[in-house]
Amino acid sequence: LMVRIGAMKGVVANVTFDGCTWRDGAVLVLLGNAYAAVGSLNIVVTGNTFDDALLSPEGWFPPHTNITISGNRFTVTRLIPRLGLGLRNPSCLAMNELAISNDSAVVLSGNVFQAVRASSRAIQVVKYALRVSWHSVFAVVGNTFHMAGGEGTAIHLEGYTESLSLFVLNSSAVVIRSNVVSRPVKYFMLFLSVFCVESFSTVVFHDNDMQGSSAVFFSSRSSYIYHNSWLQLSGNLCRASPSDAFAVLKSMLNLRDSTVSVSGNQFMSSKDTPTALWIYSGPSHLTNGAVVAACNTVNGEEGANYVIPSVYNAIILTCSDPCTLAASCFPAYTTTASSDGCACTCAEGGHGDACLPVAVPEPPSTD
């Protein structure tokens, strides 16, 4: 079934799929069109069951689009083919590209993703980039991932070689928060191509609970964090330490007036001391950039390793050091951070506990 957004007109357009069952190779395509003649677009997919079926929200969506994918159950035992989508692995939610802008939001919350086959991807962008721009947010909050085989990936962002996997621009955010991965995976979040965050934007990976992995956050190409932007990896729990590192930036990390923060992550390890951050090589661009690592613990005690080229002059803080603003708060939208509880006081335009550039929905209640 294909829903063509380009055919819609009006001040407000609403599309809802509530309590439906999709099975045996069925595909639901939400096909975006940035030029659709709608003032605002609301798409809700809630309480559905996808049993060997595929959900594809794909393309460029018009301004003021809100897509909510919540409370669904996805189970995939095989690759579900879709014309024009070059999947090579079983996936629950997949698209060639997804682009939102101008006060738009895509929120995945309270879903259960179950993949029976090894090397599956729960959420996958295949051909082009995930693009989030102009006061927009892409959020994956409060979901559960059951990935069998130890070789799967929860969030897989591909893109062509040397092109973009992720582009976050102009006071926008990608937030991965309060998710649970119940079994070992190869990666939680994988970027196969360039990862770019610019102009008062942020990527936040916070409060996720996971088992073993090769790496939790893995970028295989160059990363660019420019112009008052922020990459924050904080408050996550690894019940088995990653075999390579928690966060791996395999190629260059380029920083301009921006910050990378890895803080408050907990590792449970019975073997070697885990590495919290591994940056493979120095940058081609480094201007007023900061790398901050603070209070990453192993079995409740300090001692995580870091592999960071000296050119970054990384700031390594212990748990007894006073709170530093850049570890807990988005610097561009924060006026102060308390030294004891790390509470952020937001400047105008900052939202939530960390003063993000856009509001992010809370994870669903577990009561």
Automatic annotation (TrEMBL):
Coiled coil: none annotated. Pfam families: DGF-1_N. Gene3D superfamilies: Single-stranded right-handed beta-helix, Pectin lyase-like. Residues 281-356 form the Dispersed gene family protein 1 N-terminal domain. This is Dispersed gene family protein 1 (DGF-1), putative.
